[in-house]
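FORM 7B: Structural annotation worksheet

SECTION A. Query
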Amino acid sequence: MSSSLIKLAQARLGTLGLSVQWTSALASQLHTSAPLCRVVSGKYRITKKRDRPLTYEMANPPHYIAHRKTWNSWNASSLKDGLRRSETVLEDELIRRFMNGTWHGLVCSEIIIKRQFNHIRVAAIIKRAVTPTKMYFLLGYTEEMLSNWIQCPVTLELQTVDKFEDVVFKYI
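SECTION B. Predicted structure
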């Protein structure tokens, strides 16, 4: 810390009636770095009317990943000396975009991708807004197309709900 900042702090603290000994001790503990406790990235802002719906995954802040939240992709390729790092990220993005496009307006939660050996399992919560016949068609179509593109078996694990409000954890 520069001497000018220490002198300024001593002058300010001296006006409060603190001795020079206290001011020098307090001035040595002052720092100009940004506080680390004000992490706001990844958190949702509270709206005035508190009408924004959040799912359980969205309601927990980012520092609760691995405690309350799950990872949206479970794989070991991002570890040190892991193979296919960039390919895994691109495949995960392809899976998410294809799912959101194929099941347009029906996905109510985040799409969780679980990789185990050569097998990919995709989990999501879907709205029950289409007929069972169409749902079975979309299920088979999605699994078949993703399996052909990624060149490994893909299995969809879907849960259904009546409406999106069944997935809402809280409103902010």
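SECTION C. Observations
Helices lie at 3-15, 20-29, 56-59, 85-102, 132-150. Residues 77 and 87 are 10 Å apart (CA to CA).

SECTION D. Sign-off
Analyst initials: ____
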